[in-house]
Structures are given as structure tokens and as C-alpha cells.
Amino acid sequence: MTIENLEKELKENKLDSLYLLYGEELFLLESNLKKIKVIFGECVKGINYILIDEQNVQDIVSDIETPSFGYEKKLIIARNTGLFKKESKKKTGDISKIKDKLTQYISENMNILNESVVLVFVEEDADEKSELYKVIDKNGIVCKFDFQKPLQIEQRIKAICNGYKVQIDSQTIRYFIECCGTNMQDLINEIRKLIEYAGENGTIKKEDIDKLSIKKLESVIFDLTDDLGKKDITNALQVLKNLIYAKEPLAKILVTLYNHFKKLYITKVALNNNKDLTSSLNLKPNQAFLTTKYKVQSKYFNENDLRMILQELCDLDYNFKNGKIDLQVGLETILCRYCS
């Protein structure tokens, strides 16, 4: 089941008896888990609300069978149990026995679950080839929470703004995502600030994002690279000083700069050899929009420039670790040398 379909069912207060929720987009996963708990109703821990993890997963079948005294149903949330990890070809250990027992129990006793239990598995990852996965997929709801793609994020941000009667156009949303990243938790926090600032019937503008939002380090590095490409040393140094003022560790700035210029070099080589840029840069689906930015910035530099900058950043790291140069001075020197 897709995230959107799951959200639609929960919005209609439809509650299934068996769920497997897993994936990397933890904010949306936890949001939907919270909705399940709200629909379920009153939860009394130990009576009609049971929490299971890797430490007590061996009790899961007995917890399912134990009556929820005074309540029609019980809610069991099993989080990071280890039951969905990939196994070696030769299955050994207690966790395999528990998995086999639970798989058989669910297959043979869905009537019991439907009558008295809402069982929710929450995992970071799940082996889709396992028998337990298959039996849950057959009898319940499996939903993988992948990172959202830019268009999906745009739709969610637009819907949130509409809910508060605040206007924001698609171009501004895309700029917002470029500045603040694709992590839904971070985006929700930042858009709430902008909504409060704009007020009901107001409009969120690009300058509001520049003024109020906390930009990701990677986004700021794009700004710094633009300045370098235009040989604007004044702005480049100001961006670096702003990062230092914001208490970004110098070592982190150095690593982020190196990784950024490495991607620009890969972009240059990939374009010159007609290679697919998304796969060359190893970008996730929700990062595909970055290819346009890398293409634009790679035009500022030739391959020799990029190799030189990468080598100088490596040399700076070596000399700093050996006490030969101050890291801030070294970074400023590299920026000035390129712009000279």
C-alpha cells in the first residue's frame, strides 16, 4: 500500500488488524503510527496496549492471545524486533524460531487478530522475501515509507499552507526545498515558522525563506560555490564567515566542501562522457532535482580547476592535522587563490 492510500484510510478512521510500517521516512511513518493510536482510542499500558521490542519479542504470540480485560481490543506495537532482517541461508538462533512460529500463527489465526487485536510492526527495514513479510502482506497492510520525491514534498507543503490559508507558489516551494533539504521533519518545522510569519491570507515569499529559514549546510555550500564561480571573493568569504558565526564546525565545512566539489567533478566527467548524472552522483529519488544545480555550477569550472581545488582541500586537511596551518586560514586561502 502506498503512503497516500494508507493516509486516506486512516483519515476515514479505517483500522486494520495487521500492519507492517517500515522505511527511511521516519517522520511520515511516526505520523501514521500516531494516527493509528488515535483511531484505536484509549490505551492502558499492560492491559490493552502492549509494546514489544527485540528484548521481549519471544512473548509476542502469548501477548496476542492474552485477553485485554475490560476492553474490546488490544493494540500491540512491535518496534525493531529483528524479525524482518535478512537471514543467512542456514537459519539458526531463537529469532528464526520466533519468526517461524509467528508466521504460522498469523496464517492460521487471522480470525483471532481480526476480533481482538491491532498488531503493528514498525521496522527500519524489512526483507520482502521473508515468509513473515509475505504473510503480513497477504493478510494485512504493508507500507514502505521511502523518502518523498520533490513533487510529493511540494504537494504536502502546499496542502499544509492551504490548511492555514497561506499562499505559496510552486517556484517558492522548490526554492524552500533547495534551502531546507528533503527531510520532512525539518521541512514541517521550517514551514510552520513561515506560515506564522505570513499569517492567515498572507503569502510566503522567497525573501521570507532567506530571512527566517535555517538553511542546510549543503545549500549554503551551493551559494558559496556560485560566488566562487563568479569570482566574487567578497561574498564567498562572507558566506564562510556566516557559517563559522552559526557555529558550524570547520572540519564539517571542509568535508562538505570537498564532497561538493567532488560531485561537481563527477558531474563534469559524466556530462563529457554522456553518462546518466543521477546514477553517477548516486542520488536518491528525492535528490534528483539537484542534478540541474550541479550541471549549472559545473559550467563555472574546468576539470583542471576542480582537480586542483580537491587536491588543495586534501592538502589542507593533512596540514591541519599535522599542526602546520589553521583550518579557517587555510579555507580562506583556497577561496582567495581560486578567485585571484
Model description:
This protein is an alpha/beta fold and about 350 residues long. About 60% of the residues lie in helices and about 10% in strands. The chain has helices at about 5-10, 25-40, 60-65, 95-110, 110-115, 130-140, 150-165, 170-180, 185-200, 205-210, 215-230, 235-245, 250-270, 275-280, 290-300, 305-320, 325-340; strands at about 20-25, 50, 75-80, 115-125, 140-145. A 5-stranded parallel sheet has the order 2-3-4-1-5, sandwiched between helices. α3 links the parallel β2 (about 50) and β3. It is elongated and about 75 Å long. The termini are far apart.
Features:
single chain, 340 residues, alpha/beta, five-stranded parallel β-sheet, 17 helices, 59% helix, elongated
What is shown here, in short?
This protein is of the alpha/beta class.
